[in-house]
């Protein structure tokens, strides 16, 4: 009973401390820019490299990674993080300069400025919103709730824990905007990374630093054909998955676009890349492998059980607080980005040009929260949450990436050609990946990207009578 009280006390103290520290950092006079969208969704362009790195890191690193990747109980899953380093480097030197050059608030704004027409921008925003509402937000709530339930052995329905996460996360997004989100991300990230490394060390100590008895297929970094990441997928779709996620996903790039200048943004992105290279692969893969030796194949419950067993009571309370913060920050980051897409790309463009940004963003955030809570029970039935997430990502990621590639690397292209290709690619990927599955889904994603680009250029020539011209003009100094 005493250990339970200690856990809860430490958990509550740290959670309150993070909230208070965030409030103290963000309470000062705000430099309200003339652009209300930039002030609310890009923190008025005031984020330093330190907060950009922290927010990028913790926006991505949440329970869907820690629970889901460790739930595979294989070292192989670390490839997602190693490949992410390449994605971040490309963001820093290739794509974020474009957002600053064209003064974008959302990634989709680049499409309108490159191809013209607000329809394609709105279409891609709608797809991003669908992905957030039906995939990312409910999965964040589910995995966070599952971790808390398995770590503390809480006798409560997951949906009740999810509601608690959703309400607190929404408060950050509504009242603080991106500034509060980024600051809380960074404070939480320092603690989570530190405790995550401690869990790795204590897990090794629990097995006397002896990995014998663990099947070789769980220790190898060369994936077989039947593994979650066959080695040959690293040569096809993997890098393009990373380019999409790190360079065009509003939830990530929004942080990079909130710096006072391009140089500061690049420093933050490269710092985040360093963290991913040196720290993240260990904490998302090694504990899962060790848990296999300790408990056998227990899937997504592995990480929570291991943490609960190896950490002393007061530290497990601290770790739970960091994990709760990770869920909250990832959730409120996604909410803030979804609101940005709706307000900037849809509401202002089609309904009300001079909108009260905070009022509309608040209303949409509340709606997003309600829907994501309702979808949590659906993901409780998944065998492997991280593999399901990656497969679902393909429905939107490669078709959307094709539109950005067409806009950036070609001129004289109709936005309608790109838009039709995106819709066709989404439908085609869904049919092939979920009903026929002739290839691994990562190969299917690569083929979808190539097919979408080819279809867009073909439609542009045949239907819209335009001849696309390849160009690298945006990358010439």
Question: Can you walk through the features of this model?
Answer:
With 477 residues, the protein is mainly α. It folds into two domains: 2-382, Sodium/glucose cotransporter (Up-down Bundle); 394-477, no CATH class. The protein is 74% helix and 1% strand. The chain contains 19 helices and two strands. The chain has helices spanning 2-26, 36-41, 49-60, 63-71, 79-101, 109-115, 118-152, 158-206, 237-247, 250-256, 262-278, 280-295, 302-310, 313-350, 357-379, 385-393, 397-409, 415-436, 441-462, and strands at 410-411, 469-470. The protein has a two-stranded antiparallel sheet. It starts with a helix and ends in a 7-residue tail after the last strand.
State the gist of this model.
This protein has 477 residues and is mainly α. It contains 19 helices and 2 strands.
Structural class label = mainly alpha
Strand order of the largest sheet: 1-2
Q: Helical region count?
A: 19
Percent of residues in helices comes to over 70%
Count of domain modules: 2
Radius of gyration: 22 Å
CATH superfamily of the largest domain: Sodium/glucose cotransporter
Helices and strands, in N-to-C order?
HHHHHHHHHHHHHHHHHEHHE
Primary descriptors:
about 475 residues; mainly alpha; 2 domains; 19 helices; about 0% strand; globular
């Amino acid at each position: 009973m005493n250990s339970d009280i200690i856990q809860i006390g430490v958990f509550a103290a740290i959670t309150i401390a993070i909230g208070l520290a965030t409030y103290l950092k963000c309470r000062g006079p705000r430099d309200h820019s003339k652009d209300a969208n930039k002030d609310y969704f890009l923190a008025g362009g005031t984020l330093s490299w330190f907060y950009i790195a922290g927010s990028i890191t913790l926006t991505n690193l949440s329970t869907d990674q820690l629970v889901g990747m460790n739930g595979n109980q294989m070292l192989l899953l670390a490839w997602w993080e190693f490949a992410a380093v390449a994605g971040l480097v490309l963001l820093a030197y290739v794509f974020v300069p474009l957002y600053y050059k064209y003064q974008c608030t959302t990634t989709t704004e680049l499409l309108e400025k490159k191809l013209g027409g607000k329809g394609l921008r709105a279409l891609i925003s709608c797809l991003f919103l669908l992905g957030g509402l039906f995939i990312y937000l409910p999965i964040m709530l589910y995995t966070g709730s599952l971790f808390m339930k398995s770590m503390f052995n809480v006798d409560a329905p997951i949906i009740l824990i999810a509601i608690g996460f959703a309400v607190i996360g929404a408060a950050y997004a509504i009242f603080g905007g991106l500034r509060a989100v980024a600051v809380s991300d960074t404070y939480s990230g320092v603690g989570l990374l530190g405790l995550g490394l401690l869990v790795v060390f204590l897990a090794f100590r629990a097995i006397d630093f002896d990995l014998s008895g663990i099947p070789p297929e769980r220790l190898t970094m060369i994936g077989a054909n039947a593994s979650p990441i066959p080695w040959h997928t690293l040569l096809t779709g993997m890098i393009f998955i990373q380019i999409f996620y790190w360079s065009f996903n509003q939830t990530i790039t929004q942080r990079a676009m909130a710096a006072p200048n391009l140089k500061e943004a690049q420093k933050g992105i490269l710092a985040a890349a360093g963290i991913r290279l040196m720290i993240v692969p260990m904490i998302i893969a090694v504990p899962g492998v060790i848990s296999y030796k300790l408990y056998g194949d227990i899937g997504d419950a592995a990480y929570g059980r291991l943490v609960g067993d190896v950490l002393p009571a007061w530290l497990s309370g601290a770790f739970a607080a960091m994990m709760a913060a990770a869920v909250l920050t990832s959730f409120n980051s996604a909410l803030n980005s979804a609101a940005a897409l709706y307000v900037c790309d849809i509401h202002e463009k089609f309904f009300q040009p001079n909108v009260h940004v905070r009022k509309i963003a608040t209303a949409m955030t509340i709606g997003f929260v309600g829907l994501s809570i309702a979808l949590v029970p659906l993901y409780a039935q998944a065998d492997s949450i991280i593999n399901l997430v990656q497969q679902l990502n393909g429905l939107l990621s490669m078709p959307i990436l094709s539109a950005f590639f067409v806009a950036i690397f070609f001129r004289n292209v109709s936005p309608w050609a790109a838009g039709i290709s995106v819709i066709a690619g989404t439908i085609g990927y869904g049919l092939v990946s979920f009903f026929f599955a002739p290839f691994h889904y990562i190969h299917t994603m690569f083929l979808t990207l190539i097919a979408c680009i080819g279809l867009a250029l073909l439609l542009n020539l045949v239907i819209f009578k335009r001849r696309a011209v390849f160009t690298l003009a945006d990358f010439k100094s």
